[in-house]
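Hi L.,

You mentioned the student needs an example of a multi-chain input paired with its predicted structure. This one should do, with 535 residues in total across all chains.
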Amino acid sequence: MLFLVVSQIINGVVTGMIYALVGVGLTLILGVLNIPNFAHGVLFAFGAYILLSVLQVVGNFWLALLIAPFGVVLLGLLLELVGVRRLYTAHHDYQLLFLFAVALILQETIILIWGPIGTSVLPPAGLQGAVNLGLTVYPKYRLAVMGITAAIVAGTWLFLTRTNVGAIVRAGIENREMVAVLGIDIQKVFALTFGLGAWLAGVAGGLASPIMGLTPSMGFDILPIAFVIVVVAGLGSVPGAILAGILTGVAQSLTTIVFPEAANVVIYLLMGLMILVRPQGLFGKR
Amino acid sequence: MSALLEVRDVSKSFGAVAAVAGVSLAVTEGRLHSIIGPNGAGKTTLFNCITGEVQPTAGRILYDGRDITGLPPHALPALGIARSFQRTSIFPTLTVAENVWVSAYARRETRGGPVLVPADRVEGVGETVRAALAEVGLAAHAERPAAVLAHGDQRLLDFAIALAARPRLLLLDEPTAGLSRQETQRVIAYIGTLKGRYTIVLIEHKMDVVMTLSDRVSVMYFGRLLAEGTPPEIRGDARVREAYLGKRA
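Structure written out for the whole complex:
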């Protein structure tokens, strides 16, 4: 039993870190652009599928993981340029409709290109198999994912807190009109934030593919989880999104032990509880 | 004696309502020029025409001889025009220094080079931030989140943000609005120290606030310019007294 609990906790943390990458991107886009990015899940899916195709060409998982997210960035920037940019001042309904439509179209595009049947990607050579952690035997690749996601999250945090562009992004989350009035080209900041969010979703999708597998619906599967994370975290909060991501992952995988059918319900329970107890979220200000 | 800011026959109507009707004024370089009037006189609408928040229906606005009518608000800092806000507009969870940094960064002199650099290594910006904070007396609070500052301090932070843009022209929209009597005194005293160093346009509805500070006063009433002159002239003007007293009666 202990073996099971420990490995499920580690499982939860690994999944949670992947959720966190998706959630951080979503919360940044929501915070800076004030756009609920309903296409965020499908960007995650594209991260996985583009990795699959790049891997077939280059033959090296790490190289594919480096390249594939930039494909997702291009897709994200195109989305921003063609659609989202025209809807900044529109009502949320229009943004929602547009992005939801885009998500559906992109999901169908996945089926057109890669087929309707799910597939999977092998972990990179050298990280296949498991390692003995004492209390439990654990897959090497998942441990590596934990390290990589931690590094990406730390890098994102350094970017936000230490760099010029990061400072502007944080200011934009607080008051985007004021940033513009001070003479900063807010349009560039918006595009950059959308690109960064897309990149995070793309990396998450790529990293997740050997763990969760690839299905055309994987984008719509992760989207509600990402929104739960944003709500639990507090709007625009990056540390909150990281913590909420891990919490969600662990809650999900622990529930699997006792009551597997409830694994997907428990995260909404978590969100409902948060709304009741602390409506502004873990790190929210309002 | 040249005018740095010139408002020429500016009107702004919202539907059938003329909020500003044919107002002209010239602000001499280096002077503090106040625009006063009872609530609803059209002061803020005029201010918003100058800052580009709203488009005047008619008339022109000239800055340093250049037509700036209809320029968007974000184009003004680059020209040397900075503004404060009636409702304090700061970034609450950012530190006091970071608040000022955004403004200083937007007006940094060195362009080009790498896009991504450490925020504290942008040439000249750090000095500008420190100078602006020292100027308003908030240097000791530099690393605190802006949200924890007292109301009056937040207003001074608003000024520091404006000053960090190294403006020639400073537009202040009711800087004492919502402040206690004591805080008002402090902000007024502070504006006094800016006098002569910047060209200042001050929008105010409290008459007593502007009289001691201003070089020149324009009085608005129902969208029109009622009178213009030095503070003693305005104080002695019967129409102005009527407008103000009439409103109170």
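You could point out the following to them. Chain B has two domains: 1-80+167-249, 89-166. Residues 136 and 190 of chain B are 8 Å apart (CA to CA).

Best wishes,
N.
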